[in-house]
Amino acid sequence: MQTIVLATGNKHKLKEFREMLPDYNIITMQDVGFSGDIVEDGDTFMANSYIKASTIMQYLQGKRLDYWVMADDSGICCDVLEGKPGIYSARYAGLNATDEDNRQKLLTDMKDKDDRSAYFSCVIVCIRQDGKCVVGEGRTMGEVLKEYRGDTSFGYDCIFYSHDLGKSFGEASPDEKNSVSHRKRAIVDVLKNIEDDRWRVIKC
């Protein structure tokens, strides 16, 4: 079974990746001893995913650990806000913002907006020891609600109404959300590209 180091410190993401990649051994950065900071200063989801994946791969190469690395960058994008929060979703209300801070800022920015259409976007980069990558991309469409619905423990889920599910992500079970999520669709895409042997050097 191929071991993949997931370049995230987010426990929710780790759980989702393990649920959606049962044929791979998914381990954490901490499992391989990485404790440094990764500066995500890219201007696209792709760039930030590559920064994370390549940083951990350089660390693994230095330790002579023959694993793959997978990283994702994702966020919610609102049409009326010209794609914001986008790559800044995790820090929309500031560098040390909580999920609650970010949700409240988005609800404030969307106040009085008639067009509430939005989508979650995810880009996954998987990199192997020779530096070649496969990329997967996924989107899930919906709209920003005016009030919380369901579980408030993860990101923007409780204010994102999924067109696929007919309910908010906060109201959905993990299986329901995983079946239509942007991350699920990006994982399906990256797995197809692995199967089709579409490894390549990428530039961001």
What does this 3D model show about the protein?
It is a single chain. The protein has helices spanning 11-20, 45-63, 99-110, 174-180, 182-195; strands at 3-6, 25-28, 68-78, 117-127, 133-144, 160-162, 167-168. With 204 residues, the protein is of the alpha/beta class. A seven-stranded mixed beta sheet has the order 2-1-3-4-5-6-7, with helices on both faces. A hairpin with a 4-residue loop joins strand 6 (160-162) and strand 7. The longest helix has 19 residues, at 45-63. It is globular and about 55 Å long. It starts with a strand and ends in a 9-residue tail after the last helix. The mean pLDDT is 94.
Short structural description:
By secondary structure, this protein is α/β, with parallel strands linked by helices. The chain has helices at residues 11-20, 45-63, 99-110, 174-180, 182-195, and strands at residues 3-6, 25-28, 68-78, 117-127, 133-144, 160-162, 167-168.
Any descriptors?
30% helix; seven-stranded mixed β-sheet; alpha/beta; 204 residues; globular
Q: Which helices and strands occur, and which strands form pairs?
A:
Blueprint: E1 3-6, H1 11-20, E2 25-28, H2 45-63, E3 68-78, H3 99-110, E4 117-127, E5 133-144, E6 160-162, E7 167-168, H4 174-180, H5 182-195
Parallel strand pairs: 1-2, 1-3
Antiparallel strand pairs: 3-4, 4-5, 5-6, 6-7
